[in-house]
From TrEMBL:
<dbReference type="Pfam" id="PF12833">
    <property type="entry name" value="HTH_18"/>
</dbReference>
<feature type="domain" description="HTH araC/xylS-type">
    <location>
        <begin position="174"/>
        <end position="271"/>
    </location>
</feature>
<dbReference type="GO" id="GO:0043565">
    <property type="term" value="F:sequence-specific DNA binding"/>
</dbReference>
<keyword id="KW-0238">DNA-binding</keyword>
<dbReference type="InterPro" id="IPR037923">
    <property type="entry name" value="HTH-like"/>
</dbReference>
<keyword id="KW-0804">Transcription</keyword>
<keyword id="KW-0805">Transcription regulation</keyword>
<protein>
    <submittedName>
        <fullName>Helix-turn-helix domain-containing protein</fullName>
    </submittedName>
</protein>
<dbReference type="InterPro" id="IPR009057">
    <property type="entry name" value="Homeodomain-like_sf"/>
</dbReference>
<dbReference type="GO" id="GO:0003700">
    <property type="term" value="F:DNA-binding transcription factor activity"/>
</dbReference>
<dbReference type="InterPro" id="IPR018060">
    <property type="entry name" value="HTH_AraC"/>
</dbReference>
<dbReference type="InterPro" id="IPR018062">
    <property type="entry name" value="HTH_AraC-typ_CS"/>
</dbReference>
Length: 277
DNA sequence: TACAGGGTCATGTCGGTTCT
DNA sequence: AGAACCGACATGACCCTGTA
């Protein structure tokens, strides 16, 4: 429990926006020093060489490298020879709650792709660029879909081990989410949750929402209803027993469940079991 | 077991203050 | 300047009851 669950939350609450997408050969003058961008950059390098600095670290990405230059971090880039980069590039924002995804996660700036992964990424970049140029009325939807696939490729190539949750905020949120999971069968108050972090309840709610995009009680209720779904499908428990296992009053549980899934608890069980047959 | 209406009180928000 | 706290007030989560 912890990192994986938090990552799933971040990904399912990710707000994406693609501002630019293109494929270019960098001019010899390609250079910008010590700037802090408001958007993320993603490069897929086909050929050439150059130098990039992100947060004081120096990199020299080359062919078949995927590069992520996160928003809100001091960075520089420059050419280093006549063999300038030929690359696909995207400018995008990726936000969870009020935070940029890459403020929440510490991931490698440069990732060398296998031949297969490179071809896959190249196709996605070509698709993204085409959609961006078309500017059709459905483009925003298709751009986001293509961008999500690129991010999925990036994250699955680096793997869980190489993703670090940044800062003490992630530790604090892990403590709270673990506490919620341990007490899923109980009614937990905001006061109790806030006490785990030694914060004032009002401040805790603001803090939680800022990082998670929803209030602590909303988050915990969703967690309970997800758990209830599993109980309904895997067990033979009565509806009122399922409600008990997630620490909810039976009547209130039915109402919440319907709001959350569109099905009543018994309807959900019946329809999903029928599908499984 | 589902659904609806109504009442209560915990939760969430906002604006300001204090602390480090 | 940013983190944390506090009080007032609006909102919504939750419970209870009745009906089908």
């Amino acid at each position: 429990m912890g990192k994986e669950e938090l990552l799933q939350h971040y990904f399912s609450h990710l707000n994406l926006d693609v501002q630019e997408a293109n494929y270019t050969k960098c001019p010899k003058t390609w250079r910008e020093i010590n700037f802090v961008p408001s958007f993320n950059r993603l490069y897929l390098i086909e050929q050439g060489e150059g130098e990039i600095q992100v947060g004081g670290q120096r990199y020299c990405p080359s062919a078949h490298d995927l590069v992520i230059m996160p928003a809100q971090v001091k960075q520089s880039y420059t050419t280093i020879s006549d063999a300038t980069y030929l690359k696909y590039w995207v400018h995008f924002t990726a936000v969870v709650g009020e935070r940029s995804l890459f403020q929440l996660l510490d991931t490698p700036v440069v990732l060398h792709l296998t031949a297969d992964a490179f071809i896959h990424a190249q196709h996605k970049m070509q698709e993204l660029r085409k959609i961006h140029m078309e500017r059709a009325w459905t483009s925003p939807l298709r751009k986001r879909a293509a961008m999500l696939q690129l991010l999925e490729l990036y994250f699955s190539c680096i793997g869980l081990q190489q993703i670090q949750l940044r800062s003490k905020d992630a530790d604090k949120l892990n403590v709270i989410i673990a506490y919620m999971a341990e007490h899923i069968d109980q009614r937990i108050t905001v006061q109790e949750l806030a006490r785990q972090l030694h914060l004032h309840p009002n401040y805790f709610i603001t803090y939680f929402r800022e990082h998670m995009g929803e209030s602590p009680i909303q988050y915990m209720n969703k967690m309970k209803l997800e758990h209830a779904k599993q109980l309904l499908l895997t067990g033979e428990l009565h509806i009122h027993e399922v409600a008990e296992r997630v620490g909810m009053d039976a009547y209130y549980f039915s109402r919440q469940f319907k709001e959350f899934t569109g099905f009543s608890p018994s309807g959900y069980r019946a329809s999903h079991r029928a599908e499984g047959k």
